[in-house]
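Side project, low priority. Logging it here so it doesn't get lost.
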Amino acid sequence: MPRFFADSPPDGDGIIEITGDDARHIALSLRSPVGETVFVCHGGTVYGCELLSVRPERVVMRAVSSREDSSELSCRVTLYIANPKGDKLDAVIQKATELGVHRIVPFLSERCVSRPDAASREHRRTRGGRIALEAAKQCGRGVVPEIAEMTDMRSAVREAAKSDIALFVYEKEKDRTLRSVIAGRLLPGVSVSVMTGPEGGFSPAEAEEAKGAGMVPCGLGERILRCETAPIYVLSAISYEAEL
């Protein structure tokens, strides 16, 4: 059954209102009648709601049940991704949402080719938010990942290093594998940060900066993965390990 996301929890009377595209979808595409039950998510809670009024511009419903969403990863994962060229970031946001990421932070590193201005950054962030929302609906999540403002690498490293497990994905790291770093450590409630590089990879100076901040460099094997493939590889491994 389709899920929808509310901007706020039910009010004191259990009422939730939905407007915009979701209201039009309920009224015109699904043709849901008054009295039908739909599921609405907010803040990790799933509400079973009875439709009270259905119009394309506004749908009003009353929450009749609630439960904690069970679709989220047991650990909290933030992806820090060096800004890629073209529409690669859109694809990563979509797939990362399906794989359970909690937050996505684009950043600019030394070898990033694409360096958007302020207006383009805001446009990308807005677009990324829409992609994350649609992906969350499609895969049945109860939380929509946050798409953060684009930042610089130094700021991203400082923030990422604060996680319980801070992974710096580096193709020149040969001694420490991803598996060796995460095996047995992805316990419920653990915070995990994953930092992946741009098309040209990280420079040696950037790798040293990340290690100096406390991030753990790890390799992904002998094959060199594309910048849009590496984060999906890592998130898939985290999802697998966390749910064992």
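Brief comment: The radius of gyration is 20 Å.
Revisit when time allows.
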